[in-house]
Design brief:
heterodimer, A: six-stranded parallel β-barrel, 35% strand, B: 20 strands
Chain lengths: 481, 445
């Protein structure tokens, strides 16, 4: 075995650094799913009638649906009756200050590297910390409230702004959309709600940290972002999860609506537990994310850094309905050991003069499989639509796989669609060059991989870009092709 | 599959079964011939297989409904004069010319005078009964066909009329092409033809085959269901050209497969101009290291044509290269589909695969669906693909106009230039000239 291979071995053997469980008392339902459970979730959260009806409709529809099998991922069948559909921290105190918060929770955040005190002081980040399913703490709420911005947990929004929920829930991802979206619609526990009023530019990055905590608890988050005319918001979502043996299902739904001239930037750093070296355990991340550029000149931008999860299966999409609207997708997906990722995007051009950009960087190491699957569809009426896609894959080691499945469907003759993809490994000559300049092999590889991902990292907000680089190092540093 | 489609396909199979029986009844004692025994096996196989529907990933953009709804027949071929053939001929006496009329080999119109003695060109039917080739054909053709899970391949085998077997021995080079002209005429019932060709190129041999698909009657309706297989022994070089200019209401399904052994070199060129629904399945299986594969394609869709090109290159061994270039122009309400799949297996290190698909969509209602697909399991490889869908560059049009061309001339010049990039890869002058003439005639129509 060459030296470089040894370095690869050492580093890819690195343990998951965020593996721990916090002992906060939980209020959980028994395992299993039926109409009663759906009713119980709704009753527990004191939801209005329309929402219960919607959940039940979704549940009944879900029963008739088949689990999809087309993605390029392999996993044992999920027993949906073996999942706890609701878990909430038992004590839900109303805090005046951080001192009153359960010290165990504070410790959890500290180990995650996001102490709330610091977060408060860090300019421009409000944290809506979600531990399992119920929001525990929302900061900066008052400050945002003054500007008319609503940033709260989904359950709060249901209580305080039912008219907005009724109007927008399911308008981008209807409960009939797909198997996991239907399941989420029936049993979603909580999530975040953001509303930016007309003409308001949100002054800070809105951030939510998700954590899966209770054993065997599926997380069914629901995020809804509504940006009114000429507004702007940048939303961050980051996740880490404790180490577990059993697979955990995460089936979230994110909906974004951007009206005239509105701009929404959605950034994700995903680092759920990827399973151990043998591919045991790990999170199933089956997420439906979709943004609707409803108004003209609106813009939705997805940036994601996917390093975790045993299986990642998601396609953040943009429906470009408004004329002159813009969709963007920047992604870095890293798979190691036995991880599997089938991710990409859908850009549906419906309006005139719409533009979209796709930059996807895949890195596979170990025994993992990394697929890019993307659809660019130019509808009949989408005059002068323009798409540019670039999907690059980097392979490290000879036991991993990289796949691309780009679908380009063009129904309008004025469209311009460009797609390019490459697959390669880190060049021996690049490595040699850096090493002869005095860098260690490991540093050289880090530098090359970071350079390879730069295009995407540049799109991330500052704090996230740092975290993303750190994650990339943990997942891959020193991997040699 | 919708219940309606399912019913239709059951009906299609019943109809094919009736057709098979009527063909069998007219065999006059030939029914015990090994070729027919194989046809019957294929027919049994067909009954077990189902026709692909749009639910199948590889058939997502192409529906066979319109094609399978017809009731097809096998009708006797009409007599043709040599003069009727003239527009389709390529080159002169030096070219080996084989003529098939409505699927049947017409020996009078065929010209084998240029055939060197070492070259074997015979009907598959006879080759299968010939002890010299029997084992080879059973191993590489009949067994291969029976192992296929494609209903269309089974259908071709079941309804094959004569089939063509070409064998070039080791260390021989055939400079001039073998030209197969497949002529169709208008028939009472839509004609089902099942052209098939099995080519074996011996070690270090070289061979060129040109297939022309043409129609004497512009409004003829028929279905050409083609199966070709090429086996390239080590270091063999094979060029295969398909110049397809079928009647505009005709259907064509082309299943072409190549098995390329060590250091072999296979080039396929597909020109699709005619046909109502055209589907190509071109696959190259690289069976050892050091091979090179070229896949070229040009498609020109007008009216309501639907042209689908599926290509598959299977890199299973190291040090192989492949190069793929497909370009096309779509106007009116034409549909184009391109699905290029490149598979690089775990051991196929040092693979270098390139793929490019570019389409011009020139009218409001034309549609192009492209899916360039890479599946890679080896790390030391260079694979890239590109796909573009767009229009003519307006600044280029403007430039030409500023040099004195009118709008129409400027546009047609740019379209020619767009396609020439592929056409210039045709290595024989007479074939390239023919292809260019066909493309330009289509432009002008």
């Amino acid at each position: 075995m060459s030296d470089s291979m040894q370095v690869l071995e050492e580093h890819t053997r690195g343990e998951y650094k965020y593996g721990f469980t916090s002992d906060i008392e939980m209020d959980t339902f028994p395992k299993g799913l039926n109409e009663d459970v759906v009713r119980m979730i709704s009753a527990k959260k004191n939801e209005p009638e329309f929402l219960l009806e919607w959940r039940l409709k979704a549940y009944r529809h879900w029963l008739e649906m088949q689990e999809p099998e087309w993605p390029n991922v392999r996993y044992p069948k999920i027993d949906f009756q073996d999942i706890i559909y609701f878990a909430a921290p038992k004590k839900k105190p109303e805090y005046e200050s951080l001192d009153e918060v359960d010290p165990e929770l504070i410790r959890t955040f500290e180990r995650l590297g996001i102490p709330l005190e610091e977060q408060k002081m860090l300019a421009g980040v409000a944290v809506d910390a979600v531990i399992d399913s119920v929001s525990v703490k929302t900061t900066y709420k008052e400050k945002l409230g003054e500007m008319g911005i609503i940033f709260c947990s989904f359950s709060e929004a249901v209580q305080e702004h039912p008219e907005l929920i009724k109007k927008y829930l399911g308008s981008v991802v209807p409960y009939t959309d797909n198997y996991y979206a239907a399941l989420n619609s029936a049993v979603f526990s909580d999530g975040s709600f953001v509303y930016i009023p007309k003409g308001v530019r949100c002054p800070m990055e809105l951030s939510t940290y998700f954590r899966i905590n209770t054993a065997n608890t599926g997380q069914f988050e629901r995020t809804l972002i509504v940006a009114e005319d000429s507004s702007y918001v940048s939303y961050l979502e980051g996740c880490t999860a404790p180490m577990r043996d059993e697979n955990q299902l995460h089936a979230a739904v994110v909906e974004i609506i951007a009206l005239d001239h509105a701009e929404v930037k959605y950034s994700t750093v995903q680092n759920w537990f990827p399973g151990d070296k043998e591919g045991k355990g790990g999170v199933y991340n089956f997420v439906t994310k979709r943004g609707l550029c409803e108004g003209h000149h609106s813009k939705i931008s997805w940036t994601q850094v996917e390093t975790g999860s045993a299986i990642t299966w998601k396609y953040p999409s943009c429906v470009l309905k408004g004329d002159y609207s813009i969709g963007e997708f920047y992604s870095v997906a890293v798979t190691n050991n036995y991880q599997q990722a089938d991710t990409g995007t859908k850009m549906i051009h419906l309006g005139k003069n719409t533009r979209s950009t796709i930059i996807s960087k895949g890195i596979s190491a170990g025994f993992s499989n990394n697929s890019y699957r993307g659809l660019v569809k130019i509808g009949k009426k989408a005059e002068n639509a323009h798409n540019f896609s670039q999907c690059d894959s980097l392979l490290m080691g000879d036991k991993c796989g990289a796949h691309t499945f780009p679908y380009l469907e063009v129904e309008n003759s004025t469209a311009r669609v460009e797609h390019e993809a490459t697959t390669s490994k880190i060049g021996e000559d690049q490595l040699f060059y850096l090493q002869q300049r005095g860098l260690s092999e490991e540093d050289s590889i880090n530098m090359i991989v970071n350079g390879y991902c730069k295009e995407v990292f540049n799109e991330l907000p500052m704090e996230f870009a740092v975290e993303a680089q750190k994650l990339l190092e943990i997942s891959l540093e020193g991997s040699v092709g | 599959m919708s219940a309606e489609t399912q019913d239709r396909y059951i009906e299609t199979k019943a109809q094919l079964s009736r057709l098979f029986q009527s063909v069998e009844a007219s065999l006059n004692g030939e029914s015990s011939h090994p070729f027919h025994a194989f046809r019957r096996q294929a027919m049994d196989k067909l009954q077990d297989l189902s026709f692909p529907t749009r639910r199948d990933e590889d058939w997502k953009y192409t529906s066979l409904n319109r094609l399978l709804v017809n009731e097809y027949g096998h009708q006797a071929a009409p007599k043709l004069e040599e003069g009727q053939l003239a527009p389709f001929v390529i080159g002169g006496e030096e070219v080996i010319q084989l003529v098939f009329v409505n699927g049947t080999w017409n020996k009078e119109l065929s010209r084998l005078s240029a055939k060197p003695d070492f070259l074997v060109v015979m009907e598959l039917k006879h080759a299968l009964a010939d002890p010299q080739y029997k084992t080879l054909i059973e191993a590489e053709w009949t067994q291969w066909a029976l192992a296929s899970d494609s209903a269309l391949v089974a259908m071709n085998m079941a309804f094959a009329q004569s089939g063509l077997f070409v064998h070039i021995p080791a260390n021989k080079v055939l400079e001039n092409p073998i030209h197969c002209i497949h002529i169709h005429t208008k028939t009472d019932k839509p004609q089902l033809t099942s052209p098939q060709m099995f080519v074996v190129a011996g070690k270090s041999s070289q061979l060129t085959v040109v297939d022309s698909f043409v129609s004497l009657d512009a409004d003829a309706v028929y279905f050409s269901n083609i199966v070709n297989r090429f086996v390239l022994e080590p270091n063999a070089v094979v060029y295969h050209y398909k110049l397809q200019n079928e009647a505009l209401e005709a259907f064509q399904i082309n299943h072409t497969e190549a098995l390329v052994k060590r250091d072999g070199n296979f080039s396929s060129f597909v020109l699709d101009l005619g046909g109502r629904i055209v589907r190509n399945n071109i696959s190259a299986f690289l069976g050892d290291s050091g091979t090179h594969t070229n896949l070229f394609g040009v498609y020109l869709g007008k009216g309501e044509q639907h042209i689908d090109s599926q290509t598959f290159i299977d890199h299973a061994f190291p040090h192989c290269t492949s190069n793929e270039l497909y370009k096309g122009i779509l106007t009116d309400r034409a549909n184009g589909v391109f699905n290029g799949k490149v598979m690089v297996h775990k051991d196929a290190q040092k693979t270098n695969a390139y793929q490019q698909n570019s389409s011009l969509v020139l009218s409001e209602r034309a549609q192009m669906d492209t899916k360039p697909q890479l599946e890679i399991f080896a790390d030391d490889v260079r694979c890239s693909h590109g796909a573009t869908i767009g229009q003519l560059d307006e600044s280029s049009v403007f430039y030409l106009k500023s040099r004195g061309f009118n709008d129409e001339q400027a546009r047609s010049m740019l379209q020619h230039a767009f396609l020439i990039e592929v056409l210039e890869h045709i290595h024989l002058d007479e074939v390239r000239e023919k292809a260019e003439a066909l493309v330009f005639a289509k432009f002008d129509s």
